[in-house]
Amino acid sequence: QVQLVQSGAEVKKPGASVKVSCKASGYIFTDYSIHWVRQAPGQRLEWMGWINGGNGITRYSQKFQGRVIITRDTSASTAYMELSSLRSEDTAVYYCAKSRGQGVDHWGQGTLVTVSS
Amino acid sequence: QTVVTQEPSLTVSPGGTVTLTCASSTGAVTSGYYPNWFQQKPGQAPRALIYSTSIKHSWTPARFSGSLLGGKAALTLSGVQPEDEAEYYCLLYYGGAQVFGGGTKLTVL
């Protein structure tokens, strides 16, 4: 069965960077993309970007362009999302999700990132 | 800045039918936006329900259906169950980038 297992919660200071991992299993990693989505407390889902698991091509939301980098390690079937220049508004649960057509199907459990001085 | 709009909240009686919609600030939503629908309950990750306008995932209950309606994407729940009370989000595809709607809080009362 498809599983996406994310790394644990993080606490960061403003201005720092965070890197969240997403380990995939149960499917051929290079056949699908991985999307990253975040949700601030009590707020809507927010699409951040995706990476093609096969060729590594990425696409980012304009909102995060220049501040987010999504990478993958095919040998480990793992995708990573690094967000830099953190501010308090970046406090959120960050999710990875596997692509299905032009959308997603399976989701990771989420990683809480707290930005606080 | 593209905005995707959903009804903020809707209320439906158990056993009833309700339709949630998803509109794009760029104009009419077509199949080329590949609408996806998700259900999210408090403290949980979202769960995918529908992709490519109307295709159900293997786990999607039969009472959920997706369509295009009046220039919007639509999610219809027929024979609503108490466990359908949740937040529902749509996701639209804009040539590579994707945008979520603001979500609809569905209350079953």
Question: What features would you describe in this structure?
Answer:
The complex is a heterodimer of chains A (117) and B (109). By secondary structure, chain A is mainly β. Chain A contains no helices and eleven strands. In chain A, the strands form two sheets. In chain A, strands 2, 4, 5, 6, 9, 10 and 11 form a seven-stranded mixed beta sheet that branches. In chain A, strands 1-3-8-7 form a four-stranded antiparallel beta sheet, with no helix packed on it. In chain A, a hairpin with a 5-residue loop joins β5 (45-52) and β6 (58-60). Chain A starts with a strand and ends with a strand. Chain B has 109 residues and is mainly beta. In chain B, 0% of the residues lie in helices and 53% in strands. Chain B contains no helices and eleven strands. In chain B, the strands form two sheets. In chain B, strands 2, 4, 5, 6, 9, 10 and 11 form a seven-stranded mixed beta sheet that branches. Chain B starts with a strand and ends with a strand. The relative contact order of chain B is 0.33. The model of chain B has no long low-confidence stretch (mean pLDDT 97). The chains are: A mainly beta (117), B mainly beta (109). The interface between A and B is medium-sized, with 22 and 24 residues.
Layout: helices, strands, pairs:
The complex is a heterodimer of chains A (117) and B (109).
Chain A: E1 3-6, E2 10-12, E3 18-25, E4 33-39, E5 45-52, E6 58-60, E7 68-73, E8 78-83, E9 92-99, E10 104-107, E11 111-115
Parallel strand pairs in A: 2-11
Antiparallel strand pairs in A: 1-3, 3-8, 4-5, 4-9, 5-6, 7-8, 9-10, 9-11
Chain B: E1 4-6, E2 9-12, E3 17-24, E4 36-40, E5 47-51, E6 55-56, E7 64-69, E8 72-78, E9 86-94, E10 97-100, E11 104-108
Parallel strand pairs in B: 2-11
Antiparallel strand pairs in B: 1-3, 3-8, 4-5, 4-9, 5-6, 7-8, 9-10, 9-11
